[in-house]
Design brief:
Blueprint (H helix, E strand, L loop, with lengths): L3 H19 L11 H11 L13 H12 L7
Helix pairs in contact: 1-3
Length: about 80
Amino acid sequence: MKKKADCEAVIRQLCSEYSSEKNIPMQADSQPSFQGFVAWVNDKGYGNYFNFRSTMGPMYDAETWFDQEFKQMWRN
């Protein structure tokens, strides 16, 4: 199991890579899919970064980081 802080750094970086590869702007008016991101991360072989200890659960935290990176916190 990986450390939460390490996973956060990698997931945030992967958000940037996902944005570039899928041509999805990291701005509030875009509507990226977290599930699409998760599938993309798993296809790239980085799914193990969703495996860390978390009070709310690793996918909840990962989606929060995703929303922050894509400026989508207004959806929550």
